[in-house]
Design a protein that fits this description.
Elements lengths: L5 E2 L4 H11 L4 E6 L7 E7 L2 E9 L5 E3 L13 H11 L11 E2 L32 H15 L8 H24 L7 H10 L1 H21 L21 H30 L27 H4 L9 E9 L2 E11 L4 E5 L11 E3 L3 E6 L6 E6 L4 E5 L3 H17 L8 E10 L10 H4 L4 E3 L12 E7 L5 H16 L3 E9 L2 E8 L6 E10 L10 E9 L2 E9 L7 H14 L18 E7 L8 H9 L3 H5 L3 H7 L32 E4 L2 E4 L6 E7 L3 E10 L11 E8 L18 E12 L6 E6 L7 E2 L5 E2 L8 E2 L1 E4 L5 E2 L6 H5 L2 E8 L6 E8 L9 E9 L2 E13 L18 E3 L6 H7 L15 H5 L14 E2 L21 E6 L13 E2 L2 E2 L18 E3 L12 H7 L3 H17 L28 E3 L2 E2 L53 E4 L29 H8 L5 H6 L13 H7 L4 H18 L1
Helix pairs in contact: 3-4, 4-5, 6-7, 6-11
Length: 1228
């Protein structure tokens, strides 16, 4: 009877959805309890609310419904008897209403319709009515069975015994019938099957022997010589006779041995005539001594000194003044740790064109032209290079970063490279070398010939339908790494479940950095009992960063999508890994990085003819729109929050075995009818990371030389930032009481129909213990009536968190897990989210917003306001060295703090706030200057981190707030004349002034003295502009002042006044001041227009989204009005504090940075933020209603989708599409 109402493994959210779909009072179901093992939860619907009652076991194993007070409820032997009793009690059962209608499970599981391991099996024929056999035939069969009974099969394996018995029973008879029907020309298929089973061991040994021969050949070959070999088709499935197949394989062994012998002779002869070095490095004897460090082998190469790393050359154009100045050849020498920049007409190397790795400070990518790159050196020299393609620019950046990492003198590494590979082996051992798979050298996003020579620090190999024993497969991987990369690796951990296997190999030099190694497996086959489908996982800590690798094989068949999604949820729920105090949470909240990969079996849902036609044109974009995995992510049904790199390789399933090329075997003939397997990307690699962590995918593709399976292997390579587990600043250990995490307000939106109060649970590795807050006392308005609860916690209900240590480097790498739990005794989680501490040490409140999930399902959202109080330890908050991976940045992210501090006019802060000159107040005026370069290369910004200068959406201006303004007048371009009037520089189109709050915004008069002789910008000024009018705006003011006063850019005096009368010091000129119309951050009495230029990437939300200068004191957030109600602007007044624009650097290579604040140029963290940055906030409900609520999904948005949403304004559509293209370019 329990099958009528018991839902095993169902989540709380899904149970509520089923009851609300039914809709009738008294509908009920029973599910497993998430917090108590062996307990159940009775879910009962009444008046559109779901009431939950725990069913707990006692010490004798009897169960009862938990009750309040001292009343002892009756106990029962099992669940059916309990439910039957309560149904019989009717309305007098002590519950909110009678149990009337049970909700049955969603559907019984059926065996898999598509088994991918029967490719060589003929369909089992249905026996028809047969004629009665003759007596002679019966006698012959009886004699055959009698001979079989006398056989001694004790030394044979069970598979062969079953095969020979089956042949004696009916196989011989089938061959006899086929022989007669075919006139004697048939190849006896049943007998061939018997021989195949008998020779399986020999076949495996021959395959292994051929693989070893291939490895020997790879070792003797020169650079990629074996790629020239033609891949021959294995005769196994081309010959009808197994005897012919084995004879051909033996002949192949003979051929390979003779060819290997000849190759060995060639290598021996060649070795006596040539030197050992394969690559001749440039002669650097002409370089002046002392100009560069002596060459040395870095730690990464000392133990692999025989690794041969070729030089890499890039042809670039050097740009100056926005035009091509001359051409260069850039040669990167990773082995010696330097690169050369040589003109075609100059061959000799000297200190002027040789750049050691430690002299390279920053690589800044141009976002307006993806082929341009700025290279900044330690001597402040800057060069702008234009590469031939964006791919060459990316390869150059990766090689420089890899070079700096390899030659780093730091004892602790701050980043590691990780290889993740997945392959469904199809129960067949590989016949070819694993070289290209392990080197990420194949189709798709692959590594170039230089980076593919460098070994990874961690190798994670996941296989499905494994064909070899674990020991043989481990030895095969080790031999492949030794042959292809000369790398000796250690096996860290292995985990197997039937044909599923995960192996983790590590570079031996990092052995002492690994800890907390765990492994676990989950069965998701029929009834979750069989291991033919499921997952095997391995987790560990690498220094202070945790990793989890999940190798999964999900249900097959395009029609079993829901079963695949259920497999995914079961895997996340049942993997027993991570900290014990977080065992009831989603596994994605237990580790910094979770990798989910394997044969996920998600298919392309289009007709096979159409798919094949599109594959001929390599039209991957339209096919991926019909990919089940992408759609499930978009609809938040599976793998929500996981990332995947762009797919640029052919589908990996289902291909013909032992045949080179992409020949898809899409039709399978079975006894039940033909089955169509549409070519699909079944084998995938995805990852999920905490906010504020660094991870970059550097390769994602497949190889086509391993042909023994109907799947192709997939590889992925990652560079991941590693944090230190230790506190670096020992001074912070002396006093930690002053460091506090203070939450001012938190609001959650929970998907649930239950009505109760909630508490928050805070946990982190930097906290001494798990901390709970008080129950909420009020609720906000629900956006979806009846299915959401919006609890609100205020500062008096939220705890003050005190970390274990006060070291900023340690704390900025930490995260806080916040879980919403019910106030009941079961305390089941209603959702969790993670927020980062990175860039939080400003001392000012910041706003965060995150999505809550629970066991793979989205359960709501959370937002709030908080800050970190440092107190007397502010002086200890000194950030350490930059990370190696920070060397590459976008021009919208990077600024040099020294440039802005030295080149900006000094400000007298005593006049900023009406005489308030306290050090504490002044220290808050430099939020941008105190921070390092941007972290927008960090991924998964589910949490919106804002510094003091960032505005909060819908935050009203209150009396006493400071409103930043920006001087951004138009300016003549390079070849136009500047207007002058009375010896002063006149901004075209600017006249008069208006009172504060007038239409169009306030005006601030600015005195700009200008000698009458200056009518043009200087050549230096022309170089700064680089054809960009935006940078010319501020440049003209600086140029004019420099000519008037003769002051240098580093010592130019500017004294902003609180009354807004002047930004620059008074001049001897008696001409009247010029009124300049500034742009205001906070809307005061008017709506300033949107900027005329289009941003490269959407900015963080402001009110309105207007550009601000880099060093401006923005308004502080008012904690009492964090979630404000509407109020008229007349109720709020604001003071305007004008600020002087910073002088441009020596070479203005970042025009957008000169006029906009660094924080505003980060990528948006949410769709509402992105739309607000575009000035299209009115479309936010439209996007969310149609499911476009994730920044990860936005690159898939196209013009048709925008039209379907109902956006009819053509200019708005173009603005959205332009930003989408920029987002795609930035993620490439």
């Amino acid at each position: 009877m329990s099958a009528l109402y018991f839902h095993r493994g169902i989540s709380r959210l899904r149970s509520e959805e089923l009851l609300l779909q039914e809709g009738g009072d008294g509908s009920f179901l029973v599910r497993d309890s998430e917090s108590v093992t062996g307990a159940f939860v009775l879910c009962l619907l009444f008046q559109s609310r779901v009431h939950q009652y725990r069913i707990l076991p006692d010490k004798d194993g009897r169960i009862s419904v938990q009750s309040e007070g001292d009343m002892q409820p009756p106990s029962y032997n099992d669940l059916p008897s309990l439910v039957t009793s309560y149904i019989g009690k009717g309305e007098k059962n002590g519950l909110v209403c009678a149990l009337k209608k049970p909700i049955s499970p969603e559907g019984a599981e059926i065996p898999e319709a598509d088994s991918e391991d029967d490719d060589f099996e003929d369909p089992k024929q249905t026996p028809d009515a047969e004629e009665e056999k003759s007596g002679a035939a019966k006698t012959f069969k009886f004699g055959l069975l009698n001979n079989f009974a006398r056989l001694d099969l004790s030394s044979c394996d069970g598979e062969f015994v079953d095969a020979i018995k089956a042949y004696a029973d009916e196989g011989l008879e089938k061959d006899s019938d086929a022989q007669g029907a075919d006139g004697g020309g048939y190849a006896m298929p049943e007998f061939q099957k018997l021989l195949a089973v008998a020779g399986k061991g020999l076949q495996r040994e021959l395959d292994l022997f051929l693989l070893k021969l291939s490895m020997c050949h790879d070792m003797l070959c020169q650079e990629d010589e074996d790629k020239k070999r033609t891949l021959t088709s294995n005769p196994m499935d081309r010959l009808g006779s197994y005897i012919d197949f084995m004879a051909a394989k033996l002949e192949n062994c003979r051929t390979q041995i003779l060819a290997l012998e000849e190759k060995a002779k060639e290598v021996v002869i060649e070795s006596s005539e040539t030197r050992d070095n394969e690559y001749a490095y440039p002669d650097c004897t002409d370089i002046t001594p002392g100009t560069m460090n002596p060459p040395f082998l870095p730690l990464g190469l000392r133990r692999n000194s025989s690794i041969s790393i070729p030089l890499s050359t890039f042809e670039v154009k050097v740009l100056k003044y926005g035009k091509v100045n001359y051409k260069l050849k850039l040669t990167v020498d990773i082995h010696q740790g330097r690169f050369f920049a040589v003109k075609p007409s100059k061959d000799n190397l000297d200190s002027s064109n040789t750049f050691p790795h430690d002299k390279i400070v920053q690589l800044v990518k141009n976002t307006s032209d993806n082929s341009r790159l700025h290279v900044i050196f330690s001597n402040k020299k800057k060069y702008l290079y234009q590469f031939q393609s964006v791919l060459q620019r990316e390869n150059f950046c990766l090689q420089i970063r890899q070079m700096k990492s390899l030659h780093s003198q730091e004892h602790d590494v701050d980043n590691v490279s990780i290889f993740v590979g997945t392959w469904n082996m199809g129960k067949s051992a590989p016949c070819e070398s694993l070289k290209y798979w392990l080197k990420c050298d194949g189709e798709g996003k692959s590594k170039d010939r230089v980076l593919s020579r460098l070994p990874h620090d961690v190798y994670v190999i996941g296989t499905q339908e494994s064909a070899m024993t674990e020991k043989d497969w481990i030895n095969t991987i080790k031999a492949g790494l030794k042959a292809s990369l000369n790398l000796d690796v250690d096996l860290l951990e292995s985990c197997s479940l039937w044909g599923l296997r995960t192996l983790v190999f590590i570079n031996s030099k990092h052995r002492n950095k690994f800890s907390h190694i765990q492994k676990s497996s989950v069965r998701t086959g029929i009834a979750n009992a069989l291991g033919n489908k499921g997952a095997v996982a391995v987790s560990f800590m690498l220094s202070g960063t945790s990793f989890c690798f999940i190798n999964a094989h999900l249900a097959s068949g395009d029609e079993r999508l829901e079963r695949r999604n259920a497999n995914y949820r079961d895997i996340l729920k049942n993997l027993n890994m991570g900290p014990k105090n977080l065992e009831n949470y989603d596994i994605t909240h237990k580790f910094h990085h979770v990798f989910f990969f394997g044969d996920l079996n998600y298919r392309v849902t289009e007709p096979v003819e159409l798919v094949l036609n599109k594959l001929e044109k390599r039209d991957f974009t339209s096919l991926l729109e019909q990919d089940q995995l992408r759609r499930c992510q978009f609809e938040k049904k599976a793998l929500f929050g996981f990332n995947e790199s762009e797919i640029s390789f052919m589908p990996t399933y289902r291909l013909e075995r032992h045949k080179a090329g992409h020949n898809y075997d899409w039709k399978k003939i079975k006894a039940t009818g033909d089955r169509i397997n549409v070519p699909s990307w079944c084998d995938r690699v995805l990852w999920h990371s905490f906010p504020g962590t660094f991870i970059e995918n550097t390769a994602y593709g497949t190889v086509d030389n391993l042909l023994n399976s109907d799947h192709r292997p997939v590889f992925a390579s990652f560079t991941v930032g590693i944090t230190s587990p230790f506190v670096q600043n020992r001074m912070s250990l002396q006093e930690i009481r002053d460091v506090k995490f203070i939450f001012k307000k938190i609001q959650a939106q929970i998907k649930t129909s239950t009505k109760q109060f909630y508490v928050l649970e805070f946990s982190s590795s930097c906290l001494p213990d798990i901390v709970f807050c008080e129950s909420n006392q009020r609720f906000g308005e629900s956006q979806k009536s009846g299915f959401t609860n919006n609890p609100i916690w205020t500062s008096d209900q939220l705890p003050v968190l005190r970390p274990l240590f006060g070291d900023v480097d340690y704390l900025e790498d930490q995260h806080i897990l916040i879980a919403v739990k019910g106030c009941g005794e079961d305390q089941e989680s209603y959702g969790e989210c993670v927020i980062s501490l990175k860039d939080m040490f400003t001392g000012e409140p910041c706003y965060f917003e995150a999505t809550m999930t629970h066991f793979g399902e989205e359960t709501g959202k959370m937002k709030g306001e908080w800050y970190i109080q440092t107190g007397s330890l502010r002086g200890l908050m000194i950030k350490g060295n930059r990370k190696t991976y920070d060397i590459v940045a976008l021009d919208t992210e990077y600024h040099d703090p020294e440039e802005f501090l030295s080149l900006s006019p000094p400000v007298d802060f005593a006049n900023v706030s009406q005489g308030n000159s306290s050090s504490a107040g002044s220290s808050r005026l430099f939020p941008a200057a105190e921070q390092d370069s941007g972290n927008s290369s960090y991924v998964n910004h589910d949490v919106i981190m804002r510094a003091t200068s960032d505005g909060v959406p819908d935050c009203p201006v209150t009396a006493g707030d400071v409103v930043p303004v920006e001087v951004a007048p138009p300016i003549p371009t390079k070849k136009s004349k500047a207007q002058t009037m009375g010896g002063q520089f006149v901004m075209p189109g600017i006249s008069g002034s208006k009172p504060l709050g007038g239409k169009g915004g306030p005006l601030v008069p600015i005195v700009v003295p200008l000698p009458s002789s200056s009518g043009f910008l200087s050549e230096e000024a022309e170089e700064y502009t680089d054809g960009n009018e935006l940078s010319a705006e501020l440049l003209a003011l600086n140029e004019a002042e420099k000519r008037a006063s003769g002051a240098s850019s580093s010592s130019f005096p500017a004294r902003p006044r609180s009354d807004g009368a002047a930004l620059f010091p008074a001049s001897s000129s008696s001409a009247p001041p010029i009124a300049i119309k500034p742009k205001v951050l906070v809307n005061v009495g008017g709506n300033p227009p949107l900027p005329a230029h289009k941003p490269v990437l959407p900015r963080k939300p402001e009110s309105p989204p207007i550009r601000t200068s880099p060093l401006v004191w923005q308004s502080r957030l008012d904690g009492n009005d964090f979630y404000p109600s509407s109020s008229s602007p007349a109720q709020h007044k604001a003071k305007v504090v004008p600020s002087a624009p910073p002088l441009p650097p020596e070479e203005n290579i970042y025009p957008s940075i000169a006029i906009r604040k660094y924080e505003e140029l980060k990528k948006p963290a949410s769709v509402p933020e992105w739309l607000l940055g575009l000035g299209l906030a009115e479309y936010t409900p439209l996007f969310l209603r149609h499911g476009w609520d994730s920044m990860a999904a936005l690159p898939g948005l196209n013009a048709l989708s925008i039209m379907k949403m109902g956006i009819r304004d053509g200019e708005h559509r173009l603005r959205i599409l332009d930003s989408i293209r920029e987002l795609r370019g930035s993620s490439a």
